[in-house]
Structure formats: C-alpha cells, structure tokens
Amino acid sequence: MKIKEVTAYLEQLAPLQLQEDYDNCGLLIGHPDTEVTGVLVSLDVTEEVVQEAVRKGCNLIVAHHPLIFRGLKRLNGTDHVERTAISAIKNDVGIYAIHTNLDNVVNGVNYKIAEKLGLKQVSILKKKKNTLLKLTVFVPEGEATARVLAALHKAGAGEIGNYSDCSFRTTGIGSFRPEEDANPVIGRRGALEEVEENRVEVILPAYLKNPVLRAMQAAHPYEEVAYYLHALENENQEAGSGAVGFLPEAMSVEDFLPYLKQHMNLSVIRFTPVSKMIRKVAVCGGSGSFLLGDALAAGADAFITSDYKYHEFFGAEGRILIADIGHFESEVFTKDLLVEIISKKITTFATCLSEVNTNPVNYYY
Ligand SMILES: [Zn+2]
C-alpha cells in the first residue's frame, strides 16, 4: 500500500479542507507513491521519534502536530524542526500531519476526550458555518433519476447526521429547445421539447463539490445538465471545534476533579472552581480558551482544555469550572485514536504507537 492510499483514507475521515487557516496538515515530507512499510503514530515529531520509526521499520510517521508549521526557508539543522526534517529525509521516513482537521470532525480528537470522560450525547461544541451546499438538479423521470441519485450519494452527498442517502424530489415539466450544434438525448434540433423531470435536491459539504458535480455529470443522461448550487447558512453538525456532552451523573466539584484526573491520567489540574454540580462538560484538546463563550452558551458546567492564561481564568466569573489539564495530556489519547483508525482499515502493515514521551513540559511538585 502506498502513502497516498493511507492519506486518502485518513482524509476521508478528516478532510484537509476542514483544517483551520493557520494550519499545515497533510503530507509534509515524503513522496505519495512510496510503499508503506509501517506507520508510527505520534503526537509530535522529534528526532527521537524519527529514530524510533527507523528502529521499528516504519517509513511513515502520522503525527497530530505538524512538524513544519510556518514554512521552512533553509535546512541547515540549526533548530529542532530542521534537524528532525533532515533526519526524516535522510532516513526515507515520510511525515504526515493530521491536526485541526482531526480536531474538527465527529469522532476526532475531542470525541476521544469525551469518550475517555464517559460523556454521553456528545456533539460538536462550535459547529462550523458556511461549509454546506445544496445541489438542485433536474433529471428525466424514471431510471435516470435513480442513477443520478445513486451517483450523488456514492460521492458523499445527502448525509445528515446519522442518516445517509437523504434527498428530496418533486416532479414537473422541463422545457428546452436543442440548438443547431446540440446532440440531444431527448427531442430534436430546433424543436421545443417538454419532458417530465424530477427536481432532485441534496445537501453536501462544500469540500465535496467537485467530486459530487463530476459524479452528477457522469450519471446524468443529458448533454447539458441543468443544476443549481446554493450556499447554505446551516451549521454543520459534522464539523467544528470542541465537543460537549453529559457525564453519566451529576457530580460535585470535589468528586469531578479526581474523576477527571483519573480518566485523563493527569498528575495536575489547574482550575477555577464553581459552586454547582457538574453534569454538562465541554472539552477541547489543545489550546481551547477561544471556546469559553461557546461552552457557556451550551450551558456547560465545566470546560476541559489547556494552555489557559492567568487572566483568561477570570472569564469564568463563577459560571463554569475551567480546568486546564495540559496540552500534551489533553491530546495524548489522539495517538490511540489514530492507531484505532488506521489499524481498523489497514492490515497490510503494522501501525505502532510511539513510545517516546514528547511532552516538553515537566511538573515538579
Ligand atoms: Zn495540540
């Protein structure tokens, strides 16, 4: 199996188009046509991780954090990023980053945290907007409609939450006059034609626009396909930042803190307390302080994230428990998630969990 086949599979689950603007996800080092000998999954890529990959016979590292974030202008080995990149290139080890695109999907980084905390009825905390389209296409009644619909669904259109193959159609009369150079499937040149057609409507994520339109064109019998694409204002239930869900039962803060410590395997929690029971919990792996307003709006009793600054804790104002559990600690289970994702589908090579502790932060207490 080639690198491009592995990354295509990962990008089906976490499309690159869902990464944040500042991010740099995707294949950062290596050629897509290289045969994969094994995958090493890591949170960060360091020189030690590259050496581990070589030792374990893995020529592809799948990491959460992009090694190259802001671009490289030279490769002299003067800092850890350059040295790690040089080491990967010298050892023919590819590096693939699956970062905010994995944060922003259902069953991604934040759903993994929710799973570790035993949260129920989990949904995305801040759903993305302006990422959905509606396609309306006119198809002759009968077999052609079934064929076009099947092609649209196969290309990923018509998915709403836990429902697939969603569509709506009405029947009406389509009219057209084929011009001199036309090759009409129905009707003849110069004559006004009226045909019983279905108006078919499906929803689709904007990033699937091109494959869906290609599938529609290929399945449609007409030489010229009449269709409209509309941008939708709907929130995207499938994509966005953070997650929110409910604990199995309400807990006091005194009970919640040890619960959080145990379930996320923490040594320390920085928190600002609240005087209420904890039931609804918002989570965001990595730096999540930008989601405090969304956590409050969702009615969360606690917000679990990391990289909180001193002054930002004041934003709680007694309304919510903010718990900063550490950046590495909040995302470390992403490694398990990636191993699960890859080994579920791909069995032609080994998928290994990196054993290198890449957390640069230590605690002395
Ligand atoms: Zn992170």
Terminal-residue CA separation? 47 Å
**Biggest sheet strand line-up:** 5-10-12-13-14-11
Query: Low-confidence runs (pLDDT<50, min 5 residues)?
Result: none
Structural class: alpha/beta
Helix count, DSSP H or I runs of 4 or more residues? 12
User: What is the CATH class of the largest domain?
Assistant: Alpha Beta
Q: What's the architecture of the largest domain in CATH terms?
A: 3-Layer(aba) Sandwich
Number of domains: 3
Q: What's the SSE pattern?
A: HEEHEHEHHEEHEEHEEHEEHEHEHHE
In total, the number of strands is 15
Question: What report would you give on this structure?
Answer:
This protein is of the alpha/beta class and 365 residues long. The chain has three domains: 3-100 and 333-353, NIF3 (NGG1p interacting factor 3)-like (Udp-n-acetylmuramoylalanyl-d-glutamate--2,6- Diaminopimelate Ligase, Chain: A, domain 1); 109-126 and 241-325, NIF3 (NGG1p interacting factor 3)-like (Udp-n-acetylmuramoylalanyl-d-glutamate--2,6- Diaminopimelate Ligase, Chain: A, domain 1, 3-Layer(aba) Sandwich), CATH 3.40.1390.30; 132-234, Alpha-Beta Plaits. It contains twelve helices and 15 strands. It has helices spanning 3-13, 47-55, 80-90, 100-103, 109-116, 143-154, 209-219, 253-263, 292-297, 310-313, 327-331, 334-345; strands spanning 26-29, 38-42, 60-63, 94-97, 120-128, 132-140, 168-176, 193-205, 227-232, 236-251, 270-272, 278-287, 302-306, 321-324, 350-353. The strands form three sheets. It has a six-stranded mixed beta sheet with strand order 5-10-12-13-14-11. The protein has a five-stranded mixed beta sheet with strand order 1-4-3-2-15, sandwiched between helices. A four-stranded antiparallel beta sheet has the order 7-8-6-9. It binds zinc ion (ZN). The site of zinc ion (ZN) has 4 residues, from helix 11. Zinc ion (ZN) binds at residues 65, 286, 327, 331.
